[in-house]
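Dear colleague,

Following up on yesterday's call, I've attached the two folding results inline so they're easy to grep. Please treat them as preliminary; we haven't cross-checked anything against experimental data yet. The first protein's sequence and structure tokens come first.
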Amino acid sequence: MPSLLVKLPDGDGREIKVVKTKTSIGRSSRNDVCINDPFASRLHAEVRYDGSSYFLTDLGSANGTFCNGGKVVGTIAFNIGDVIQIGETRITLIADPVTTPSNELMLSDLNLHAEAELTIASSKHSSGIFSVLEEVTNSSKGNVLGQTIISQPKEKERKKDHLLAVVSKVGVTLLLDASLDDTLKRIMELVFEALPVERGFLFLSSQWTPNRDSKRRMRAKPNELVCKVARNAMKDLTGEEIKISRSISEKVINEGTSVLTSDAAHDPRFQEMQSVVISQMRSIMAVPLAIGEEVIGMIYVDNPYATNRFNQDDLLVLTTMASVAAIKIENACLIEERIEKKRMEEELKVASEIQLRLQPLSPPRLPGYDMIGISFPCREIGGDYYDFIKRKNGRTLLALGDVSGKGMGAALMMSSLHAALHAQAQTPLKTAQIVTEINNYIFESSPENKFLTLFCAELDPITNQLFYSNAGHNPPILVSNDGSYRLLESGGLPIGIVDSITYEENYLVMQPGDVLVIYSDGITDSVNEIDEEFGEQRLIEVVRRYRARTASQLRDRVDEAITQFIGQCLPVDDTTIMIIKHY
């Protein structure tokens, strides 16, 4: 991905990756490339990428944008090696450097005299695997590096070797990357390989989600357990009814302890439990799946046979496997969450790129008029929409809409509005009729709780007539040359609320010096540190004070006023503005 190499007037330089469809440049902090150059406008220029080529657009800057020594008018092609000059700032589009793999080996000095530790110390809240390994290690207490143990019972040595072999096999097997479902199935396969199990179940809490940064501790509840794996020695038990002892599951989950009974039917702890008696289970083991103090589920195994009853060694093996498995389960969940997050980020990026391409590349150049438009979403994708659409009758349709809500839903609705407006603009319908047709379309194709506001106008550059209809939008401000102003309110309800309504149309004649400002409520709803809104009146005063400036200079003054007003506060909504000045 190419980068913009920025050389500032003070000599400082930085490299900025061009990763977005639109990269804005200027003095305002809203820009992707913020340059502290006195000759730069607040919103000076932008670089766009259409998927194959780059383009440079001057946003009506006061002192101009220059590329390779020539002044930029409108939009031009922008290629690798081209240099943008904004005041004393130089910005060069550079390609990614070609990297080659290196076989160089870097070695650090290591202290090789440290003695190996023979035991693993576990903290009070350590995972169960450390406790088990410590127990195994302590069975050979007294062994010193370089010495040979003279005598140790063969049976104890065999058990220790078996347990370490199980830990090794589980660890190596679970090192492989796999989905959460595959990980859970593999865990139970290892349980059946290591133990004389007839039935086995793995449960996870439906309320648990991995969060390494959270200090909150939770314990699963028995009624929140969801069976993720159910099988017997021959096959999976998919779709079959699962019956296990509630008393055992409650003990494991509520107390975080392992349970072993070699003869459940005659165990005094469970004789009153019908689930145990009815199922005629002889031998049962259940161990928690725990990460520190956090119990996330359990492994439950049983068999009905008098032979091969579970014993303490089997419980130690199952507890060890559960301790390793719990860590792997958490990691598998975190990986899946990371993959899902990345997928969502990619989808948002694509949606943002599509949305930016729906915005006009540059305003039309009409004789006697100076126009500008810009939009800043407060999230990756926004619900604001603005457009300049040339009609077959030679007039230009001006539109600014604001969809209720934010995020993907608002963006999809905005795309529908864009398509509908461009289709209706090619018909001979008047402005109010276009708004009426769009209302019917949005009402039929959108959810009941979704609506949008829309200001739609048609400008005739020959007669200077402006026909408009306002569908519940913030009334645009028309400031005259003498400083007087009026609000354009005629129209009707927001789009998508009521079906089959007729919108009103009004008109005016633009006089030399008139300035029309169409905006979204993200501008007037901007709040400062004391939760005070910028408001309509402040916007009117800014427009009146700078009405003699060009459209782009007036846009910069509005942006400056909002930035100073909100201070360190973040935008609360998408901000969009269109300025049409007649001279």
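Below is the second protein, in the same order (sequence, then structure):
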Amino acid sequence: MLSQIANLWAQLERRQQTTLLVLGFAIVAGLIGMAWWISKPLYAVLYAGLSAEDAAAVVEQLREQSISYRLKAGGGTVEVPQEKLYELRLELAGKGLPHTSVVGFELFDRASFSASDLENSVNLQRALQGELERSISTLDEVTSARVHLALPEERLFTEQQQQASAAVVVGLSGGRLTPLQVGAITQLVASAVPNLPPDAVTVVDTAGRILSGGWDEAGGFRTLAQFEARRAYEDRLRDHLQSMLDAILGAHKSVVRVQAALDFQSEDLTKESVEPAAGEQMVTREEITEETYSGEAAETGGPAGIATALPTEISEGGGSYSHKHESREYDYSRNVEQIHKPPGRLQRLTVAAVIDEELGMSLVAKVSDLITAAAGIDPERGDQVTVETMKIDAIAVAEEAAKAAEQHAASRASERSMRRALHYGSFLLMAAMVAATLYLFLRRLAALPQPAPAPAAVAERAEPGEETEPAEQAAAAEQTTEFPPAPASQEEAPAELVSELSTIGADAPDVFARQLRGWIGPPDTE
């Protein structure tokens, strides 16, 4: 086999040898790269957003266990092979890694009796901030949280007590928090801190956007929040009405717009009314004083003071005294009414709708009634509904948008198909190159002359009644016939040599002729 390969290599030209070497090297390199890529482990994120100390501790543990890892995001993200991800998380968690920098009320587990009031106050604030950070970080959309509390010192008098405030910074996994989620964070912080009203809590995300809170009454963040609230109400009502009209009139047959005026002033009213009691008058308190004296006195009167001004009876003879005082209080009805008006009340609502003129004017009144009922229009409040018929070109626009979306989807699908084709095509191309190389090599190897079997073997291989081919016989004779060495000249040829050559020529004339041509050789060109 090796001799045949050597003979095949010797028969190739220099250009063919170079091409074969380059092709073989490329195939070997491709196979090595493919094997390396297949055996390369898939990495997954073990921890992200680590501090430098935590990342160093985690990497040290991975090195001790001889586990491969990768660092990303400036060293704050550690990746490990995916098959060992959960096992490593459990193992590192058992060792207390990564060390969290957030401390809660466990800070008081190591409390010292020698700590001052200032230290205890600071530790209480740190523990409260840490517990709030842990609670906020449990939300699905929040990846990290920082809480800053401003707790004033307690004062003796209430009017001197300052109000507490808080600031919350949240890191989001993506997108933005909904107003309900922001309100939940605000209420959570306000409920956990004494004397902290919800409007004193400011929530900010890591992108620098203020999610709740504000410091000015007009033209600032609160005004922006009010504008967003009004726009959200208009959009929600518009979608509600548009979906109704699309279901009735058909898609792209109508357009609805809503304009709302909201009152964001908060009011607290207390009304008290006093009216006489209904029915018979009821005495709730009655006081009667009556005094009568008799005797021989020149003058009789009451004690000094107010009583001396009251009516008295003075007798000039034997003398007598009479004093009478009456006081009555009647019941009455008292009504106390407390009214709280929250901000965001609807003051006025205006709805405008346009339907396609192809539907006709007969639907205008019906559409107006439907919008009035669905939007809750109140004429006494000043609400207004306007419905008109016009030509709507939204169908063409919608078709163009649909075509553009389809083209975009098709381009993305073709891009994914192209990537998939390149991914699998590279493997197919590599396999085709290997197969082509093996085919060419085997083909060249099959083209080499095979050694002829001995005459006896040829005879044995032939079946009874079948004659052996002359070519096979000649090849066998050529392989088995031994020729004497050629004489240097005719004069030196002995008689025995001539007789032996005559016998060989008679037995195998073809072989004898080829051997004779070999002895004669090519003509001398000198």
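For the second protein, one point worth flagging: The first helix runs from residue 2 to 11.

Best wishes,
A.L.
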